[in-house]
Write a structure and sequence with these properties.
The protein has helices spanning about 15-25, 30-35, 40-55, 120-130, 170-175, 185-195, 255-260, 260-270, 280-285, 290-315, 325-330, 335-340, 360-375, and strands at about 55-60, 75, 85-90, 95-100, 105-110, 140-145, 150, 155-160, 165, 180-185, 205-210, 215-220, 225, 320, 355. By secondary structure, it is an alpha/beta fold. β7 and β8 (about 155-160) form a beta hairpin.
Length: about 375
């Protein structure tokens, strides 16, 4: 019987490389798999036999045999071999998902965060894990949150929770008995898209998010770009309009001052003379209200300028746009593209833009993907 808890641990580096290629791109015919990994057919046969015997890989029938001959039997990984819990943690709620080995969502749940001290939050997260794990034993748990995270365990800074220096990974591992990986929520989303989503067929892509703040991530040569300042919101202070409003940090015309949901509804309230929510501003603009339309149009143009700047500097093959405020890109699509065009060389290649409509489970799935990565790559932090 296959021990799914230690599914990846005994694999050699070469076996792991074969299994990972099939996980990310399978089902794959043996000939294609050998070409992808630059292996001879004999070497591939030798490597895959124990993987087949152990149940890590299995053969699937090709529904379209070539030339009417014997059907091919591509290799694939059974995504149901392991389950993972992913959690998107905010200052008020924890959104949880249970996924399979390919980050397909199997179940969801939500817990209210009524107190933000670490112990209360860990209690809520442990309850969420327990609820999603009924009848199952998840291989690992991933948690994504807004802030700076180190070594997949230590929350250095989480503004929405008012945390500094909280070892959430250790606390949650002690409560659940499962390996836990903590990550910045945007980094987690990037990793999910890199392995299982809109970034899996390119070697470089960027993601921009708008909502409570402005965030950005970048994958180059199939690797997420990180550094000591990851997770502190640097892109939010990228200068866009020197005549624009100031953000709370005093930066005039930066991305946060022009694109955050709070900045937009605050500007609208001043112009309209009454309190309005972010979605109400967009509704008014979509209905043709000239004042709301002016505010939304200016923000969309600024968003286009920011997109163009990222494209000009990093030159990614694709740019993903998401976040709880991404409806702006739909309501003012023409002005967003006008902002891009104004900041791009006419001879530059067209941008491959993809909008991912925001959903908390999208972010929770990202956290699950980090747990999957840490498990499959056998580098999940052990306490």
């Amino acid at each position: 019987m296959l021990d799914t808890a230690s599914l990846w641990t005994p694999l050699s580096s070469t076996s792991r490389r074969v299994a990972l290629e099939v996980l990310l791109h399978g089902p794959l015919a043996r000939t294609e798999l050998a070409q992808r990994l630059d292996l001879s057919t004999a070497s591939l046969t030798r490597i895959t036999k124990p993987l087949l015997d152990a149940g890590v890989l299995h053969e699937v029938s090709d529904p379209a045999p070539r030339g009417g001959g014997r059907p091919m039997q591509p290799l694939d990984v059974d995504p149901g071999l392991q389950q993972f819990v992913g959690i998107k943690l905010t200052g008020s709620r924890a959104y949880g998902v249970l996924t399979n080995l390919r980050a397909d969502i199997l179940a969801t749940t939500v817990r209210e965060i009524t107190a933000r001290d670490p112990q209360s939050v860990v209690d809520a997260l442990a309850g969420l894990v327990s609820e999603l794990s009924v009848g199952r034993t998840p291989a690992a748990v991933g948690v994504g949150l807004g802030g700076a995270v180190r070594d997949f365990t230590l929350v250095q800074r989480a503004p929405f929770l008012h945390w500094h220096g909280v070892d959430l990974g250790l606390l949650l591992t002690e409560r659940t008995g499962r390996p836990v990986a903590i990550a910045n929520d945007l980094d987690a989303l990037m990793e999910a898209e890199r392995w299982f989503g809109d970034g899996r067929d390119v070697h470089s892509f960027a993601a921009l998010t708008i909502g409570a703040g402005v965030g950005g991530g970048l994958v180059i040569h199939d690797r997420l770009v990180t550094g000591p300042d990851s997770g502190i919101g640097l892109l939010g202070h990228f200068p866009i309009d020197p005549l624009g409003p100031s953000c709370p940090e005093g930066h005039r015309g930066c991305a946060d001052a022009l694109l955050s949901s709070k900045a937009i509804h605050t500007q609208a309230a001043m112009v309209l003379g009454r309190a309005v929510t972010y979605d109400e501003v967009l509704d008014l603009a979509a209905a043709g209200d000239p004042l709301a339309d002016q505010i939304v149009g200016r923000s969309a143009h600024a968003f286009g300028t920011l997109i163009a700047a990222v494209a000009n500097i990093a030159q990614p093959e694709r740019i993903l746009l998401t976040g709880e405020g991404i409806r702006l890109a739909h309501v003012a699509q023409e002005r967003l593209h006008a902002g891009i065009a104004q900041a791009r060389q006419p001879e530059a290649s067209p941008l491959d833009l993809r909008i991912l409509d925001d959903d908390p489970t999208l972010w929770a799935r990202g956290a699950a993907a980090v747990a999957i990565q840490r498990t499959v790559l056998d580098s999940l932090l052990r306490h």
